[in-house]
Structure formats: C-alpha cells, structure tokens
Automatic annotation (TrEMBL):
GO CC field: cytosol
Assigned keywords, A-Z: DNA damage, DNA repair, DNA replication, Ligase, Magnesium, Manganese, Metal-binding, NAD, Zinc
EC number(s) given by UniProt: 6.5.1.2
SMART domains linked to this entry: BRCT, HhH1, LIGANc
Domain BRCT, residue spans: 592-671
Name recorded for this polypeptide: DNA ligase
Function: DNA ligase that catalyzes the formation of phosphodiester linkages between 5'-phosphoryl and 3'-hydroxyl groups in double-stranded DNA using NAD as a coenzyme and as the energy source for the reaction. It is essential for DNA replication and repair of damaged DNA.
Pfam families, alphabetized: BRCT, DNA_ligase_aden, DNA_ligase_ZBD, HHH_2, OB_DNA_ligase
Annotated gene: ligA
SUPFAM superfamilies, per the entry: BRCT domain, DNA ligase/mRNA capping enzyme, catalytic domain, Nucleic acid-binding proteins, RuvA domain 2-like
GO biological process: DNA repair; DNA replication
Ligand binding (NAD(+)): D34, Y35, D36, F37, D38, S83, L84, E113, R136, E173, K288, K312
Family stated for the protein in its record: Belongs to the NAD-dependent DNA ligase family. LigA subfamily.
Organism of provenance: Arcticibacter tournemirensis
Catalytic activity of the protein: NAD(+) + (deoxyribonucleotide)n-3'-hydroxyl + 5'-phospho-(deoxyribonucleotide)m = (deoxyribonucleotide)n+m + AMP + beta-nicotinamide D-nucleotide
Amino acid sequence: MPLFEIKERMDALVKELNQHNYNYYVLAQPTISDYDFDKKLEELSELEKQYPELQDPDSPTQKVGGEITKEFKTVKHKWPMLSLGNTYSEQDLREFDERIRKSIGSDFEYVCELKFDGLSMSLTYEDGKLLRAVTRGDGTQGDDVTTNIRTIKRIPGKLKGEGYPDNFEIRGEVFMHRAAFERLNSERMKNDEVPYANPRNFAAGTVKLQDSGEVARRPLDCFLYFLYTDRRLYRTHWDSLNAVKEWGFHVCEHNKLCRNIDEVLQFIHYWSENRFNLSYDIDGIVLKVNSYAQQDELGFTAKSPRWAIAYKYKAEEAETILESVSYQVGRTGAVTPVANLKPVLLAGTRVKRATLHNANEISRLDLHEGDAVFVEKGGEIIPKITSVNTIKRQSGSKKIIYPDICPECGSNLIRREGEAVHYCPNDEACPPQITGKIQHFISRKAMNIEGMGSETVETLYRKGLIEHISDLYLLHEKADALKEMDRFGEKSISNMLEGIERSKQMPFEKVLFGLGIRYIGETVARKIAAYFKNIDSLMSATYDELISVDEIGERIAESIIAYFKDPRHLQQIEKLRTAGLQFEAEEKVVLLAGNNLEGKTFIISGVFENFSRDELTALIESNGGKILSSISGKLNYLVAGDNMGPSKLEKAKKLNIPVITDTELLSMISK
Ligand SMILES: NC(=O)c1ccc[n+]([C@@H]2O[C@H](COP(=O)([O-])OP(=O)(O)OC[C@H]3O[C@@H](n4cnc5c(N)ncnc54)[C@H](O)[C@@H]3O)[C@@H](O)[C@H]2O)c1
Ligand SMILES: [Zn+2]
C-alpha cells in the first residue's frame, strides 16, 4: 500500500475512534460493540508501530478515552487515572506473562479480579470522611461528582475501624445491578424516555446528572480495587484490599490470589461460564501483579500500567435465520421493528427475537427476507443483530422495507426532526395506543387501580366496553355486559369496580402522570402538580411560563401545549372531572401560607425522600422563613436529609445549630 493510503487509513481510524469515544464516554450511547472498537484500536496501534513517523499525536492509542464536561467542577488527579491494556486472546496473556518474567523474574503472584462493567471513580478521604469523588475524565483531570456519589449507600461517608491514613485516595467501579437496570429502564420506556442500552451506560449517565435527588432514586453500587497513599502502608495489593474491607469499603468477594498464569486461566475459564449468574455485568477479568515493589519495577506506558492487563470476554454470538420482521406499536405510538428469528441458543438462553431499534438500523444492516444473521447478547439485555452473512443470501430475496403506514390502524407514520423513531400520530384511535394508554393509566405508579390488569384492559377494549380512559368510570353502568364476559366472575367484577371507584381519590400528580402526556414522567408530573396546583392553570400556561419551571425543558413544554390543544384531550379531561377525579393538588396547599416560621432562618442540605429541595424552599418561604446561603451564627436550623456533606454537619455542630429532619420542619409549620 502506498504511504499516503496508509496515512489516510490511519487518519480515518483516529477520527472514527475519537467519535466512538465521545459516544461512549460523554453521551453514554455507543454505536458499535466493544469488540469492534477494540479491533479498530488494535489495527491503528499496529500501523503506528510500523509507521511511527505517521502517528498523530492526538491518537486515541495515546490517551485515556474519556473527557471532562463543563457541568461539573474540574479536579486534577493527584495520581493519573489510567486505562488498562486489554486482550481477547489467551495467547496474548501468556505473552504478557512472559514479558513480566523477563523483567522481574518468575517469583511473583497475580491478583485476579472481575472486570466490573461500570465507570471508574476516584474517592478521596480525609480524617476518615469522604471528601471528594471524581470521575476518570481524560485521565489527568475529571469531574467532581461528590454530591451524586454521596447518595450511594455502599460508599462509606465515614470509615469504620482504624489504621487508615489521614488522607488517602481509593478507586473503584461504580455500577448498577442488572435487576435495578431492568426495572428502571422499563420505567423509562413507559415514560417515553430514551432507554439505556445496558447497565454500564445507565450508571455512567446517572453519575453525570445534575439532580442528586434523581441520582439517589437510582440504586448504584461500587466495588473498590485500588488504594493510593502517600506512604505505602502495605507490601502488596492483596493486603491493601483486605485492609480497606475493614474500613468499610465494598470489595468483591471473588478476588483471587494466583501463583501463575495457569491459575489465572482457570479463573478466566470459570468466570467465562459463571458470569451470567452474577447479579451485575462483568466484561472480563483483570490481573494485577501483587507486589507493589514489583509493580514499581514494571512501571507504566502512556495509557496503562505494565503490571496489569484485562482479559475481555467476547460477547457471545450465534448465527441464525431471519424469518420475518414485525412492527410493534407502543402506547406512545412509537413503531419498533422486531426481528423474528429461527430459535438459537445464546449465552444460556433460547433466543427467537431481536431488537432492530428503528428504520436506520434496518437500512444499516441492509436486511433481506430469509437472511442468515449474526445475533449477539453483549452488555445489552435484548439480543441484537450485529451483521448479515451476505454470502448465504438467496438470490432474489426481498429487501426489508420499513413501512410508511401504521400496521395497526393504517395512519401515515411521522418522524420528528432529529429523532430516529417513527410514530403513528393517531393516538386516540390506534388500538395498541388506546389499550396502552389505559394500561398505563391503571398501572401501579399511576392510578394504581386494583382488580384490573393489562389483559382485562385488552378484553374490555375488544368487547367495545372501553375506548378511552374516561370509559373506566362508566363501567359500573355496564354490569350486564361485564357478567357475560368469559372467566369474569361476580367477585372479580366487584373488585375491579371498587378499585376504579377508589382511584378517584388519587392525588392530582398521579392523575397527571396517568394521562400519559408525552415526556411527562413521574418526577415531572410531581413537579408540575406542585407548581401549577391545578389542571386549569396548567392548561392555560404559556410556553415561557412552562419552561421557567424547574425540570421543564423545551421538549416537555411543547408536548404539554400540543396535548392541551387537542379537543379530544380536553373532552376526556372534562369527563374525568365530572367522574370526580382529582384535578387539584391538595395537602401541600394546606401547609402553605402561614407565618409560623417568621423570623427564622434555614439551610436545606442532602436528599429527601418525599420532597425536592425546591419544594422545601417554597414551603419555608411561604410560611415566613428565610433561606440562607451559608452556615453562620445567623442560622437557626439546618434541615438535613440523607447523604449531606460531612463538613456542613460539622460546622453546624460547632456553632450549636439545631439539625432537624423534614418531618420536624413540617411539624413546626403545622403547629
Ligand atoms: N463501543 C464503543 O463505542 C466504545 C468506545 C470507547 C471505549 N469502548 C470500550 O471501552 C474500553 C476502553 O475503556 P477503558 O479505557 O475504560 O478501559 P477498559 O474498560 O478496557 O479497562 C479499564 C477500566 O476497567 C475498569 N475496571 C473494572 N474492574 C476493574 C478492576 N477490578 N480493576 C481495575 N480496573 C477495573 C476501570 O474503570 C478501568 O478504568 C475499550 O476497550 C472498549 O471496549 C467502547
Ligand atoms: Zn396506528
């Protein structure tokens, strides 16, 4: 290949890999698999070795992949936060072992650890208390995310035991358990929020949120795996891990001390089979030379230590046949293509469907009917098609074309600017949208109607008994028709009708969430209800008024306005109002407006289960109290929630300022 072509290939790789790094670290929405990413990085690295004079100083082979963001304070790392060399091959591991033995002889041990699939975090402790938490960032400096990290229960705010130095840094991996991921992600989908592809992305996205209250609602965990002290306290990494366990840190119980590379390989083989039984994702294992003296001898490259390496498991892949593509219409009208596959065994389960995400994905794969396709189950929960084995394509097979019209109701599909998903706009008459809306309305997080499930909704709809949410409240008039339904005894009918009747008492915020207005999730519904107090002021709110509210952005404001513009929605709301549903926020109104706090000053700190800090501020101010900006002798009360900063608490104690809970605050108000 002529030199200029090699240079072109290298430049193209640099450009592409930098883009993938950005998608992965900053957006937390990668578009290629880790394996493909690593193969491209390896190709670039090989070319750079052969043609060092062509190497771009900005090459992704020379630096850690992340970036710092502008949303957080930037903090420089005392010790750089590096990446790890990685490989997918056992042969490479043996060569790694050879290199080490050449350098330090054969008297050494490895610590084998699981490679947790999350994001790395540096924690600094001073006098036994968590002082700061910083992301890896670009390796030299990272984002200060202390407030968010304090919400993680597994990270001690205050240390146990003794023997820890006054000042030290400890590093580990913040991650989310698979069960929490699945639960929260399906909530996101129901609320029309973009789902995360896997627990790693969910954890990374969460740590970068601006609202610590929201972070606290998403359970994160953390395993610690590196201790950094100014003066070495222990001789080995293994001893450090055991010590930090005593101080209260969460250290993985599966770590293993191995005497040689064969034992390491055994560990790798064991976890290659058993990793699916863990409650969290790992993407490989990490081996580290145990002795610190030997680590020092081996040193570092620009990007990673020479005394450690990661062995990564390749996502499991299988080949099968694409039988057909079907299109599912969701409650919000989003039309999702699903691949129906000839059943195949993959990562321990029988797979017969794979997600195709959207129309772009179908054209990217250039799918044809009957294609032989490769499916992969990587970090993602739902398997996906990675590529087509085009050699096996039958001649004359038909290309898969994404439809223009809704498969359920025949309406022309629309695609909003900047979005990849197609929607059916017929939200009041497209069958799956109707039943989906009613199912959402009765769900536990919305109106929590007992005695009625998703299947009942489908049946009632098919029988023509319900077509809109408001029809639920007319069901009691249709007792005869209900009795004629199969498998629907008198008891279940009366349970259902009672459940419906009781739902009339559900608070305004639940009704608002239940209506299923696009982008109005649970949290936003709560904020809106607290701010606008009733449906009439919400309906008449202007765009500017809407976006001035905390947490309402342009997208949500536009969606609210569009919703109330539709006469069919207004008609529904009138019917629900007549039926007796709550369209006004109560309780907090009662607490508002008094003068019990007059002349008193407050500071609110930490995270509260039942209130946002804004709500507490409003509560204090409307009862005559004042919020101060810093703790001083002028402060009367510190209202403390969970995970507040230890320095604040200390200062308040020093000044003898009473620390109260939100419940105590409420009782002061309603005295
Ligand atoms: N798909 C994409 O678009 C894309 C883009 C960029 C990066 N990536 C993936 O990310 C990798 C690069 O990320 P990276 O630099 O974070 O490297 P890495 O994930 O391969 O390895 C280093 C990281 O492993 C983590 N880790 C987990 N368990 C550990 C343990 N027990 N001990 C020490 N560290 C542990 C730490 O966070 C550490 O920073 C690439 O190899 C690629 O697979 C993918
Ligand atoms: Zn439709």
